Amino acid sequence: MNRMKNLSILVSLLATSAAHTIFQEMYVDSVSQGHLFGIRTVQSSNPLKNVSSPDIICNGAVNNFTQNPAADVITLPAGATITTEWHNKLLGLDPSNPDDPIAKTHLGPIQTYMAPIGDIYDTDVESLEWFKIYQDGVTLNNTWATQKMMTAAGKVTHAIPSCIPSGTYLLKAEIVALHAVGDTGKNVEIFTECAQVNITDGGNAALPGFKFQEGYTPSTPGLVFNVYTSPPNLDYPFPGPEVFTC
């Protein structure tokens, strides 16, 4: 049944081709959990530009949800290594597409957040308290996280903190594309989807809480950053809280 549902989603998205990107597959310790499995999927890869909108949390109706919530949950132990995989179309890797996994012009950071959620199928994400588990910005040789992701065929790999409590969470994968910001401080493009996960073998850490409607604003420095300065500005101020560590 899930295979037929996923097939219908792929057919409806076959024509989605803009130079954008969608988080569409997750790996746990290098093992794929299945294409679209456990991910709250949208029909459109269009970016989110209104940082004051709750859509920047897990995407939204503006991009036409097809799985909200997803039918499935990804189970993984605390401390596991995960990979989020992004592609231009929901058909997955396409070596013939020059804009896969994302257009080469789209420079910016990549971040991952998590939030405990009592009912994994609850679609109210505004009330959740988020914490950041990963961020990657720009290197000393002016290579952005999105460029590394392109080189890795759309894959971004990092660990889940080993001390977070067992339970159900939403895991938010996020790309902040800054190519259109320039000197104007406008037109940031956010790409994001959320996976539904169940953490096992967890610890007892007290988790910090962050709300996007308070922490992401039109004047947040990391969202109005000019990637084209000369010489390059390598001191990128990540939006959101510090990365949580055990």
From TrEMBL:
Class in the EC hierarchy, top level: oxidoreductase
Keyword Hydrolase: yes
Signal peptide, first to last residue: 1-19
One GO BP annotation of this record: cellulose catabolic process
InterPro entries: AA9 (IPR049892), AA9_LPMO (IPR005103)
Pfam families from the UniProt entry: AA9
GO cellular component: extracellular region
Domain notes: Has a modular structure: an endo-beta-1,4-glucanase catalytic module at the N-terminus, a linker rich in serines and threonines, and a C-terminal carbohydrate-binding module (CBM).
Function summary: Lytic polysaccharide monooxygenase (LMPO) that depolymerizes crystalline and amorphous polysaccharides via the oxidation of scissile alpha- or beta-(1-4)-glycosidic bonds, yielding C1 and/or C4 oxidation products. Catalysis by LPMOs requires the reduction of the active-site copper from Cu(II) to Cu(I) by a reducing agent and H(2)O(2) or O(2) as a cosubstrate.
Protein name: AA9 family lytic polysaccharide monooxygenase
